[in-house]
Amino acid sequence: xxxxxxxxxxxxxxxxxxxxxxxxxxxxxxxxxxxxxxxxxxxxxxxxxxxxxxxxxxxxxxxxxxxxxxxxxxxxxxxxxxxxxxxxxxxxxxxxxxxxxxxxxxxxxxxxxxxxxxxxxxxxxxxxxxxxxxxxxxxxxxxxxxxxxxxxxxxxxxxxxxxxxxxxxxxxxxxxxxxxxxxxxxxxxxxxxxxxxxxxxxxxxxxxxxxxxxxxxxxxxxxxxxxxxxxxxxxxxxxxxxxxxxxxxxxxxxxxxxxxxxxxxxxxxxxxxxxxx
Length: 277
Prior knowledge:
The chain is built from 10 helices and 10 strands. It has helices at about 5-25, 40-55, 70-85, 105-110, 120-130, 135-150, 170-175, 190-195, 240-245, 260-275; strands at about 30-35, 60-65, 90-95, 155-160, 180-185, 200-205, 220-225, 230, 235, 250.
């Protein structure tokens, strides 16, 4: 089974569109503020896609495109202003930021109740102790891909390859929340293939193109590829060697069209959640 992230993300966005329309009838409007510092091309594409998704669902969006010369103080001052605005539900600062700005300080400056990216230490803490809060969008999207594809998580052996704060760690916490048995692997893991071959569900977020070949995958495993890269022919590819692994897996996400579309769908879910609160 090829897990179709485009189709599932469209379903989620249509459900949210109906909910936003119902909230508007009750006089509740939702507004997302998006801040981009500098002119990173990939960031500009992501920001445009987020604005497009907001427009489709019916969420208002404010856009702040700041020059690379913006200082940390100026950025923190803008965040403080948006934190105080009652008409702004969510604040998103597009990463990466210029080297002169401390990303961690910026993430911490966003009020936890407006942190729709789910990166603030308060929201990370809530996730890890099983409380309600905003969850990092990519891992939340992976859970929805599995559930909406009819893949049982409870009781399964899940292996996450990668331990980043944005994907690997929250992914492990979410799988635990779904009652899976979870192993986290990383660059220091010895005999990696032995560990990944135990997985009923293998989630790969290692940041190395085509790294996972069929030798790493158990026959019949579900394989979720979070990576996105360009190969030597400038074609998009993931962390998993799709051609090799697809015949072995029972279900797999393609790149593009797998996890990618889900990230923005779950950001929209977090924005709508901010309107429900």
